[in-house]
Amino acid sequence: MTVVSMGIPRLPGQRPSVADRPDVPVLLDRFGRVARDLRISVTEKCSLRCTYCMPAEGLPGLDSEQVLSAAEIARLVAVAHRELGVHEVRFTGGEPLVRKDIVDIVARSAAAAPGVALSMTTNGIGLDRRAAALARAGLGRVNISLDTVDRAHFAALTRRDRLPAVLAGIDGALAAGLAPVKINAVLMRETLAGAADLLAWCLERGVALRFIEQMPLDADREWARSTMVPAAELLAVLGDRFDLTEIGRSDPSAPAEEWTVDGGPATVGIIASVTRSFCSDCDRTRLTAEGTVRSCLFSDVETDLRAVLRRGADDAEIADLWRGAMWEKSAGHGMDDAGFVPPERSMGAIGG
Ligand code: SAM
Ligand code: SF4
Q1: Residue 14: its pLDDT value, please?
Q2: Can you tell me the distance from the alpha carbon of 234 to that of 187, in angstroms, rounded to the nearest whole number?
Q3: Is 54 annotated as a binding residue?
Q4: Is 90 marked as binding a ligand?
Q5: Scanning 172, 204, 208, 298, which has the fewest C-beta atoms within 10 Å of its C-beta?
Q6: Taking a C-beta distance cutoff of 8 angstroms, is the pair 119, 143 a contact?
Q7: Which residues does the record give as S-adenosyl-L-methionine binding sites (predicted)?
Q8: Span 311-344, pLDDT tens digits
Q9: What pLDDT, on a 0 to 100 scale, did the predictor assign at position 202?
């Protein structure tokens, strides 16, 4: 691992500054936001190489002892729930299903934090074989990434010819009752022409589709504000085939804005992280696979919980460190600022 390619953790022992922080248990930041939604990356490895995320050769591999174990993940989930008021946990990566012990991670987390909603973001490969076990272990629902239903196009975007495996994964999730199954599609110039076909396919399968504006989190650093596809352009393309009516957000911190399709009840969502930023309502806190807290996808400052956990810290000490890390969360991602610089880590290394 190099610092440049994998991020900039705080040095062990270096603490966030909390002198002006009110003494409240929750994950409050300086702008009054409270994080209640935890994203945990369980690995940086992946079975695909999506061009908007991973480099063709994959990310530099981490040694197994660098990555949090199932028991360590469950401990941090328990701390987040009991001490910090987190009420939703999503497992992500890299690809969470690449971890052989993913069912154990879910089962231990469910036992450690009863009542917390557990979900997963996955590319779906291998989900047909594991969906039932994951549901039994306590997983409530899944978001599955699928950018196109055209096989050649899928292979070009992901650098792997695995569309049939993803479709089998979607069927597996539906059969296991991991509902609602949501499909995430990153909006790219190359996917725009097939966007209406993808929506038609999702309507037919009874799964909810959300498009995501592409963010500058690709390892190849190809993203450009001037060439990305904005939500408005997608709406124009979908509007040629479907009758769309705006219904807005289900709650202020929900990233997706929703539209009914052809009078409903089916809907389509758009997560316009770039052109209609929702940073002021963000309620996320993130843990990387190595156990560092990131207050934002776009912040390179990371606070190392793994080090304190492994030297035997109690829950209160871990929670305090986590609170400090979130207190320093910045107001927004700053993508529209003149001097914007993308974070060192790409999406697959942070956990999307
Ligand atoms: N491998 C899993 C998957 O693809 O669903 C989980 C990890 S992936 C990093 C999480 C989500 O981030 C996916 O929905 C993916 O499409 C999205 N994503 C990856 N790179 C992105 C980017 N540059 N901009 C916006 N979304 C991105
Ligand atoms: Fe892998 Fe998900 Fe990144 Fe695609 S978006 S390369 S599936 S981690």
Answers
A1: 66
A2: 8
A3: no
A4: yes
A5: 204
A6: yes
A7: 52, 94, 145, 215
A8: 999 999 999 999 999 999 989 887 877 778 888 8
A9: 98
Please indicate, yes or no, if residue 194 is contained in any of the structural domains: yes
pLDDT at 36 over 50: yes
- Provide mean pLDDT across the span 80-105: 97
Q: Report the CATH number that the domain containing residue 334 is assigned in CATH.
A: 3.20.20.70
Please give the average per-residue pLDDT across 223-232, as a whole number: 89
pLDDT in tens, 195-208: 999 999 999 999 99
Number of domains the chain is built from = 1
Selection from 252, 254, 225, 248 nearest residue 333 by Cα: 225
- In a domain? residue 13: no
Evaluate whether residue 7 is within a structural domain: no
Torsion of CA 216, 27, 107, 175, to 10 degrees: -50
Q: How far apart are CA 27 and CA 36, in angstroms?
A: 7
pLDDT tens, position by position, 62-84: 999 999 999 999 999 999 999 99
Tokens of 130: 């594991």
The contacts of residue 251 (CB under 8 Å, 6+ apart) are none
Query: Among 345, 311, 255, which Cα is nearest to 37's?
Result: 255
Structure tokens at 184: 């995430």
pTM comes to 0.94
- Taking the centre of ligand 1 as the mean of its atom positions, its distance from the CA of residue 312, in whole angstroms, is 34
Instruction: Give the ligand whose atoms come closest to the C-alpha of residue 93.
Output: 1
β-bridge mates for residue 270, sequence order: 211, 257
Residue 105 domain boundaries: 26-350
User: Distance from the CA of 70 to the center of ligand 1, in angstroms?
Assistant: 22
285 is in an annotated binding site: yes
Report the alpha-carbon distance of residue 81 to residue 89 in Å, rounded: 9
In a domain, residue 248? The reply is: yes
